[in-house]
Design a protein that fits this description.
alpha+beta, 2 domains, rod-shaped
């Protein structure tokens, strides 16, 4: 240090130093040393940050469903408060808990939280009919602005609840309500997506069957057209041929040899007419049976799917 420099003053008032240190670390204390208070505040801050990380992790379990969200929220609350027990209570008296949850204490907390719509503290000296239940805190859990349940924590012995702890509990309860709602919506959307996929597959199968039925309908119409043409042209021509042959057979000028030939030809014409009629019947009936059966199958599949 040069000769012209001045040494720092050592006669500053202690109050000024205390004020400067208070502004620096944000801790007010009447003790000469701030180290113990600073360590306590630092530890609580680290613990709170870790709890917030757990809350964030709990919110990330939304796609896994409401049960996973409840378990994650309960674990986060148990970690922050080092709780003897933690419980989430919903409408209908459904309880998701960790460790042994005292029912009467939980009922008393639920009654007070519902009445006040804010965090409540239940001290050990406030009798609930259960001995040694210890202190407990609870915060209402809103969903869409309406109370849907409560998050309750059983505190360990000798723990004093700070306002920051209540803020953490309220934050966790509020986020739990939103996460549970989102998880339920997500689960419902997943169910609807699966249902839509199933119905889409059914509709695709029905469409294929209808296309097959349409092709069968076209085939049936073509078969009917062929049957009509056979009946209106070929069968009629054969009948006409048979009638002419019968006239020739009965004519007086017909020789026996020719009559025998005419009789054979008439028999062949009669057989041809019979065969044509069988073909016409098969063409007309088989197509109708196939179409009816195809439509019946489609209707049965649709009814079975619904």
């Amino acid at each position: 240090m040069s000769a012209g420099s001045a040494s720092p003053p050592t006669d500053r008032p202690a109050a000024v130093d205390a004020l400067a240190l208070e502004r620096l670390i944000g801790v007010r204390s009447s003790k000469p040393s701030f180290y113990a208070a600073w360590r306590d505040k630092s530890a609580r801050l680290d613990h709170t940050i870790e709890t917030l990380e757990r809350i964030s992790a709990a919110l990330c379990t939304t796609p896994e469903g409401p049960d996973a969200v409840c378990d994650a929220v309960v674990e986060a609350a148990a970690h922050h408060f080092d709780a003897r027990w933690v419980a989430m209570m919903f409408a209908g008296d459904r309880v998701v808990g960790r460790s042994d949850v005292p029912p009467r204490t939980l009922a008393a907390l639920a009654e007070r939280a519902q009445a006040s719509e804010r965090p409540v503290v239940l001290c050990d000296d406030q009798a609930t009919g259960e001995e040694g239940h210890g202190d407990a805190v609870a915060a209402p859990m809103p969903v869409r602005g309406e109370p849907a349940g409560m998050l309750a924590v059983g505190l360990p012995d000798g723990v004093v609840v700070e306002p920051s702890d209540l803020s953490i509990l309220v934050t966790l309860a509020n986020h739990a309500g939103v996460a549970l709602q989102n998880a339920a919506i997500f689960q419902e959307n997943e169910r609807r997506a699966a249902e839509l996929e199933r119905r889409g597959s059914e509709l695709e199968g029905t469409l294929r069957r209808l296309e097959q039925a349409g092709r069968r309908q076209l085939l049936s119409e073509e078969r009917n057209r062929i049957a009509r043409e056979l009946h209106d042209s070929v069968a009629q021509h054969l009948l006409t041929i048979g009638m002419n042959l019968e006239w020739c057979r009965r004519h007086e000028s017909t020789s026996p040899t020719v009559r025998a030939r005419v009789t054979a030809a008439k028999s062949l014409a009669r057989s041809a007419v019979a065969e044509i009629r069988e073909v016409i019947f098969e063409l007309a009936s088989d197509g109708q049976v196939e179409l009816r059966q195809a439509l019946r199958d489609v209707i049965e599949d649709v009814e079975a799917g619904t």
